[in-house]
Amino acid sequence: MKPDRRIDTDVVVIGGGGAALRAAVAAAAGGARTAIVLKGRPGRSGATVSPDSSGVAWQASDECSSDDSPEIHARNIIDAGLGMADPKLARILAEEVLDRMAELERWGMRFIPDPEGRKRHYTGYSCFGDRPRAHGIANSGWGHAGDIVKTLVGVLRRMDNVEIHSDVFVTDLVTVDGECRGALAVAASSEVLLYRAGAVVLVAGGARQIFPLPAGRTPIDTTGDGYAMAFRAGAELANMEFTQYMLAPVKPFPVRCPGSFWKLFPKLRNRLGEEFLSAYLPPDASPEEAMHERTLHYPFSSRDSSKWIDIAIAAEIRAGRGAEGGAVYLDFSEADLKRFTPSRPQHLPEDYSQPIVLPDGWAGIRPEAHAINGGVLIDERASSSLSGLFAAGEVAAGPHGADRLGGGMVTNCQVFGARAGRFAAAYALGSGSREAPPASLEAPLARLRRRARTDPEALFRRLQSAAAEHLMVARTEAGLRSFTGLIEEILAEAFQESRGAGTAGLRRSMELENSLLTARLMARAALLRQESRGSHFRDDYRERDDERWRVSIVFRRRDGITAEELRTLEKR
Question: Whole-prediction pTM value?
């Protein structure tokens, strides 16, 4: 097998969300011929355009947020990361987000104005934030933060050195002597494409499909492709154990809960109607304290007593006491829904004066994976440890840590997306050969002959069920070993090489393999980290241990073997 077609360019951008499009704008503005390669279509691919959201927060310390500054913002990012964030990258994020915000406004994007007219934009608080610096971006029909995508697509259409290659699935990076020279991909037409480039920007998003999706939620096409490709190519990955989990509504849907509505102190009930939170709380904690702490951050975190809410819910579901859709109940029957006010202003100026209607006074919720804070380890130029490979967005690690500010991933995508594109263009235009000799294609082409022996969807369901059982919320050594054992079993037995195989059905098999590899790294990191920190909770090591574990776990593939080391990003 050999590539059907070769495409030569300066910069290849792999992905189609907010980070990818911003990187493409920067690369093209830097004078580089740029190809955006995404497995879907702009506006319909990636987490940026997830439809299951009314809007998103944009963290920025401008004149709209009182008693704030980029220095305070950076410190808040570092504090939220609990020692796992790179301070240099945190400072860059806090400083340059103001320029990216002004840029988007010049290009026509609208931030929510202050309803009272006292300042330019409405601002409130978001998860783990210590100032009301979260500007609201409403969903005008493009999804979660899709208005950013809409704006950037408009900018790209006015640039004559950018091409968008939709419905093209990138299967592997191409490396020569420790340098990234491009990528191998399969088009919807089944053509095998070789992209030769002076630099690659990896902005392929996260790995949501490792985890099950609650009923009624819209699937997102992120399957860990970026993590897996970077790892196979030899780039370093860090902080893979830090995954955000939320409590997602199941029934009725949609319902504005959970979130600030924990202030109403609902009763948590299993399918038997039993109130169960009290049974999981330590003697010095109360349901009211745990729920108040949860109004300050929507994702699960082991940092405060709100952790017992998620731990209790996960335990009841695992014990078989969950209801339809694997959910438990929030019982609001004793709460006065008409008199609700949030504990502090949220990032969207919702009209809380309208009565909240919940059929029968209850709602169903269950844990849901949200985002990964780890990934390809980058420096200030958004450059990875592999020469010629740059990364940004959810696929990259460094700006965030064990927890992150709400909306921080959206701003991270714009700040480091712009840096990745700019520095990738400079690298490509100043570098030498773009040659990819036949030897460099042997391993990527060989992977095109691998197929799942059975239905990939059935194998995905096995992976997701095991991830829900052993990787979400509460983790233990026994559970993590069971999970990694399942992954090794699927990798060893579920794939086979088919000589002369075409590309039909290839994508889903490769997505499965990428998800399995990413899940193995996540579980390995979680097993190594014998403590609880931020979004990582070990039920067998419940306390944070700064003496031993104020270090990041960094993975790299060497000679086909996974090697790990402990590294302090704060001193890197």
Answer: 0.95
